[in-house]
Design brief:
- The complex is a heterodimer of chains A (463) and B (274).
- Chain A is an alpha/beta fold and 463 residues long.
- Helices cover 36% and strands 17% of the residues of chain A.
- Chain A has three domains: 2-128, Fumarate Reductase Iron-sulfur Protein, Chain B, domain 2 (Orthogonal Bundle), CATH 1.10.1060.10; 142-237 and 396-461, FAD/NAD(P)-binding domain; 241-390, FAD/NAD(P)-binding domain.
- In chain A, the strands form four sheets. Chain A has a five-stranded parallel beta sheet with strand order 3-2-1-4-16. A five-stranded parallel beta sheet of chain A has the order 6-14-7-8-9. In chain A, strands 10, 11, 12 and 13 form a four-stranded antiparallel beta sheet that branches.
- In chain A, strand 7 (282-286), helix 16 (290-301) and strand 8 form a beta-alpha-beta unit.
- The two termini of chain B are 29 Å apart.
- In chain B, a hairpin with a 4-residue loop joins strand 5 and strand 6 (58-64).
- Classes of the chains: A alpha/beta (463), B alpha/beta (274).
- Chains A and B meet through strand 5 and helix 15 of A and helix 1, helix 2, strand 8, helix 8 and helix 9 of B.
- Bound molecules: flavin-adenine dinucleotide (2 copies), iron/sulfur cluster (2 copies) and FE2/S2 (inorganic) cluster.
Chain lengths: 463, 274
């Protein structure tokens, strides 16, 4: 069959030389012709394996069939039956490990580019102006949602459509969570995130910004205000540090600080925007995940000359999305692999000047089956550095757990929930997303949000 | 949006706002802070809460116009609104009856110190208040503190009003036995005071204000070394044991953005002149 022979349709991108000088979106999306060409490769399987890989089980053949018929808006609506944020997931889902991994065409050829098609129809719908869907009669029930990231936004949209009164409480001055403060503009334009947030507002959800639960109101006080159930989607925003000597020298950022300044506060447009960022000529990013790639690529765009990714394992072990590693390589990021930092040296005035590394080798596999990196004795060496960005992971924000009696969490700080209902150890309190799973993905946070929304709805019906 | 109910100019560069923020007014305690953003392109500016009126639903702040963001905030007039006003953040000062306490405030932070003093008074403490300023023109809240504290001393760096410098604090420490010392003011003052009380072994609580971005534990910009461990001022503080704080590191970390702040101010001046 033709599809196995035809390669996947490429998506136009800005050239590396051009894009390292701007924060505009790198991947520019399919044109109608390219989308039709790619949709044509889908076999419309009777038993579509692709759906198995999608955490929200989108009816993929159905939405692709609608593309083939050039019914783009209907196609977007089909996706929205399963996923309220397709323009976002189409851009940032790790598709190669999810839907596309299972695509039947992928067994012998290149899988269908499901994410790119999803993005195409979502953009087409947004450009045409999104209609608000039908909603059920008001139920009279009130639900509070803490945190306006993908998990919280999903719960809000789902429960609102069922007729409940929904109010969201977000600590920051904008809604969107990591989509606003973490993932950079050139991967996920903030206008798109705000369009999705506006959709949730159009449904009639009230969003209270600048409202940190645990400080302004406790979970208990939300119940006292008349809310009958609470969903906690407060994410994993607490940055981890290395605990190495010299780590508090100036010029050493957590990835969160670096990305919050750059993306949320728009430091890349300083001094038009007031928040500054200090970037030197030589930058070291510690870590090998998506957050590290984003930090490295932001550094280049902010004017750094040499940007190293320092990771203790090898290239095949990099946890970041393949596409993002490739983009980073094209843009000139230097991969200093099989190395681990041991300390930071200052310039005598409190600024970082050098990073000291030790070379690593991969030893025996550990419990997770990955080969454990081990330092090679006496191989310490140094790189001159002006800026260090530590991207070795985030833990759940602890404030709510600390201020809510009876809400139990694991020793890693994640809130304990029942997997099937997302109910916590407290009655009428549900949780989902990164605060439960630890740092994961947008679509898994949304998947958890859907489960929680269904259980909350059931709980309210029974009341 | 948060309306400025009243505005006062207290000294050449210190402004006072009473801001309508009912939810915060109900919750806030001395020692906590708010994060303010004047407009869309603005920074997130942390400012200590200096009072609240739950009935009126208002919160008081005092701020110094030192750079671009605080100057722009100061340009807002009574009746206008602040775009973002988040809080109350951080932990509150532990209010109890310590006995005889010394409260040292400096510069713009005397407003925040007065809020603490009022609560300490209510808890039954005997309070000696020392308020320090640059010079005569910068003295503020003198009558207000005198109305609450048992003993009040005003100092100026140049001696143009009240006592000259902080020598008086040393005398006070020699002559009296204080159970606890509290301070909020310029970091150099807090360091100096902690150094002075250490030989006497008097517990000394400082209120730090390192550079912050989110103010809710997400960025680590505000990290300080206290007793050898790294803590986040916004969620673990901002109040800490002054004898355990690594002030030298803190002071160095607070200087990072100096050159860039100058750029921002120069550009702002050029724009204003156009
Ligand atoms: C730099 C970076 C790049 C990433 N790239 C990808 C990617 O390419 N693909 C992908 O799938 N995933 C990616 N992820 C992961 C993904 O963004 C997260 O898994 C997802 O956002 C989790 O959603 P959430 O709703 O659980 O939490 P979050 O998005 O973290 O949202 C939580 C929200 O709760 C708010 N909040 C926290 N505490 C409180 C409180 N006490 N009161 C009120 N509000 C509170 C926070 O301000 C925040 O807005 C990336 C993450 C980062 C940091
Ligand atoms: C918890 C906390 C509470 C605070 N409470 C108050 C308050 O009640 N009243 C008040 O006037 N200020 C307070 N500050 C300080 C205030 O936030 C800074 O003055 C403000 O950020 C300066 O912003 P700017 O853009 O106007 O000045 P910038 O242009 O950012 O800076 C001007 C000068 O101030 C220095 N500076 C920058 N940030 C800080 C900081 N965090 N602390 C001290 N100096 C700084 C810069 O190095 C520079 O020299 C507080 C800070 C924190 C962290
Ligand atoms: S949401 Fe993600 S996993 Fe699901 S179909 Fe879309 S791109 Fe694939
Ligand atoms: S498995 Fe692949 S070819 Fe089959 S329906 Fe899904 S996307 Fe189309
Ligand atoms: S200001 Fe960001 S963690 Fe404290």
């Amino acid at each position: 069959m033709a599809a196995f022979n035809k390669p996947a349709t490429d998506m136009p991108k800005q050239s590396p030389e051009e894009r390292v000088n701007n924060f505009n979106e790198v991947a520019q999306g399919y044109t109608k012709e390219l989308a039709l060409q790619e949709a044509d490769r889908c076999l419309q399987c009777k038993n579509p394996q692709c759906r198995k890989g999608c955490p929200v089980n989108i009816d993929i053949p159905a939405f692709i069939a609608l593309i083939k018929e050039e019914k783009f808006i209907e196609s977007a609506k089909k996706i929205k039956e399963f996923n309220a944020l397709p323009a976002i997931c189409g851009r940032v889902c790790p598709q190669e490990n999810q839907c596309q991994k299972f695509c039947i065409v992928g067994i012998r050829g290149e899988p269908i580019e499901i994410g790119r098609l999803e993005r195409f129809v979502a953009d087409a719908e947004r450009n045409a102006g999104v209609e608000t869907p039908e909603m059920l009669e008001p139920s009279g029930h009130k639900v509070a949602i803490v945190g306006a990231g993908p998990a919280g936004l999903t719960v809000a949209a789902e429960l609102k459509k069922k007729g409940h009164h929904i109010e969201m409480f977000e600590a920051l001055h904008v809604a969107g969570g990591v989509l606003m403060y973490g993932i950079p503009q050139f991967r996920l334009p903030k206008e798109i995130v705000q369009a999705e947030v506006n959709y949730v507002k159009q449904l009639g959800v009230e969003i209270h910004l600048d409202s940190m639960v645990g400080k302004l109101y406790t979970v208990q006080e939300l119940f006292e205000q008349g809310f009958e159930a609470v969903f906690i989607g407060s994410g994993a925003g607490l940055p981890r540090f290395l605990n190495l000597p010299g780590e508090n020298l100036s010029g050493i950022y957590s990835a969160n600080e670096f990305l919050i300044r750059t993306n949320l506060m728009k430091a890349y447009r300083f001094p038009e925007y007031d928040t500054p960022i200090k970037i030197g000529k030589n930058v070291a990013v510690i870590g090998g995940g998506n957050v590290a790639m984003d930090s490295a690529r932001c550094s280049l765009r902010l004017g750094a000359e040499n940007v190293h990714i320092i990771y203790r394992r090898g290239k095949n072990e990099l946890p970041a999305r393949h596409e993002e590693v490739e983009n980073a390589e094209e843009e000139g990021v230097i991969f200093t692999l099989l190395n681990n930092p041991v300390r930071f040296h200052g310039d005598g005035r409190g600024n970082v000047k050098e990073i000291e590394l030790i070379r690593m080798e991969l030893g025996e596999p550990d419990d997770s089956g990955r080969r454990r990196p081990e330092p090679i004795p006496n191989t310490e060496w140094r790189i001159p550095i002006d800026t260090v960005i530590i991207a070795i992971g985030q833990s759940p924000n602890p404030i709510i757990q600390q201020t809510t009696e009876g809400l139990e969490s694991t020793r890693w700080g994640t809130i304990i929930t029942d997997e099937e209902t997302m109910k916590t150890t407290l009655d009428a309190v549900y949780a989902g997303g990164d605060v439960v799973s630890g740092a994961a993905t947008v679509i898994s946070a949304m998947g958890a949000g859907k489960i929680a929304a269904n259980s909350i709805d059931e709980y309210l019906q029974k009341k | 949006m948060f309306k400025i109910v009243s505005k006062k100019e207290l000294t050449p560069n210190v402004k006072y706002f009473e801001v309508h923020a009912p939810a915060i007014a109900h919750k806030s305690k001395p020692g906590q802070f708010v994060i303010v953003r004047a407009k869309e392109t603005g920074e997130r500016l942390p400012i200590t809460i200096a009072g609240s009126d739950p009935e009126k639903g208002t919160v008081d702040i005092y701020f110094a116009e030192v750079g671009k963001s605080s100057t722009e905030l100061g340009m807002l007039e009574e009746g206008e609104s602040i775009l973002n006003f988040a809080g109350p953040l951080g932990n509150s000062v532990k209010i109890e009856n310590y006995g005889k306490i010394l409260c040292v405030g400096g510069g713009v932070f005397v407003g925040a110190m007065l809020y603490q003093i009022e609560a300490f008074k209510e808890a039954g403490n005997h309070i000696t208040a020392v308020f320090g300023f640059r010079n005569k023109d910068h003295v503020m809240l003198e009558d207000e503190v005198k109305a609450v504290a048992d003993e009040t001393i005003i100092c100026t760096d140049d001696g143009s009003y009240g006592e000259e410098g902080m020598a008086i604090v040393k005398e006070l420490l020699e002559k009296n036995k204080y159970d606890h010392v509290f301070t909020i003011g310029p970091t150099s003052l807090q360091k100096h005071l902690s150094d002075m009380t250490k030989p006497y072994g008097i517990p000394t609580m400082v209120n730090l204000f390192p550079i912050m971005v989110d103010g809710m534990g997400m960025c680590g910009a505000c990290r300080v070394t206290v007793g050898g461990s790294t803590l986040f001022s916004c969620v673990d503080g901002p109040e800490f044991d002054g004898h355990e704080v690594d002030f030298d590191e803190l002071i160095m970390r607070m200087r990072v953005y100096n050159p860039q702040e100058k750029i921002a101010m120069v550009v702002k001046k050029m724009e204003d002149e156009q």
